């Protein structure tokens, strides 16, 4: 397990709206743009093989998308190349970070100076949610999936550990970038679960916020 002092001060960042990575979770990615192919190739040459996933932040008057201040770094733990030169990778979440500044200079992809302070818990073991009652969440998910016409492997969901269940749902459900950012920035597994429930309830009401479950 890495310590914060072993994490780099500068990392490549991949702005991808709606793509959420959380510590101790895995995110598969299909890479095909030339600049991000170069980013992956460069990351594979480093000891940490780290890439920072981050949500774009549209700023009025700015040319090109800005970046949210907090993202999550992942290590490339699986890599394959297709015959036509695309990459299929899996990132394993390591720790969240806060952007200090974007690095200027010639590079096809974006790089940022970052700090890891405040996210020490990310480098520890699996987080617990002592107030979590699984039955209400599973019932809510059942209604949500039914209204969306979605299917699920319910046996896997029921057997998953609390952190894996909550983080996997946070990553896979179709929320917008700002909602994904709220899930990322949740200070604990309990607050992430509470945010997740609120977002599901909100979506089921068609965006009307009356009577949300807290």
Automatic annotation (TrEMBL):
InterPro entries: Lon_prtase_N, Lon_prtase_N_sf, PUA-like_sf
Cross-referenced Pfam families: LON_substr_bdg (PF02190)
Domain Lon N-terminal positions: 11-204
Residues of the signal peptide: none
Protein's name according to its UniProt entry: LON peptidase substrate-binding domain-containing protein
Organism this protein belongs to: Sulfitobacter porphyrae
């Amino acid at each position: 397990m890495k310590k914060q002092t072993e994490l780099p001060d500068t990392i490549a960042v991949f702005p991808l709206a709606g793509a959420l990575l959380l510590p101790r979770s895995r995110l598969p990615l299909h890479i095909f743009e030339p600049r991000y192919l170069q980013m992956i190739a460069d990351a594979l040459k480093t000891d940490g093989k780290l890439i920072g996933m981050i949500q774009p932040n549209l700023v009025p008057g700015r040319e090109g998308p800005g970046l949210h201040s907090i993202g999550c770094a992942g290590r490339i733990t699986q890599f394959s190349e297709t015959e036509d030169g695309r990459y299929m990778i899996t990132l394993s979440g390591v720790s969240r970070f806060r952007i200090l500044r974007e690095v200027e200079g010639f590079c096809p992809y974006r790089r940022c100076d970052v700090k890891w302070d405040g996210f020490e818990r990310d480098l520890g073991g699996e987080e617990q949610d002592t107030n979590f009652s699984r039955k209400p969440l599973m019932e809510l998910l059942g209604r949500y999936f039914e209204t969306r016409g979605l299917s699920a492997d319910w046996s896997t969901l029921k057997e998953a550990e609390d952190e894996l269940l909550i983080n996997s749902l946070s990553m896979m459900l179709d929320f917008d970038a700002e909602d994904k950012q709220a899930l990322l920035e949740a200070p604990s597994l309990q607050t992430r679960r509470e945010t997740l429930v609120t977002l599901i309830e909100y979506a089921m009401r068609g965006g009307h916020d009356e009577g949300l479950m807290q």
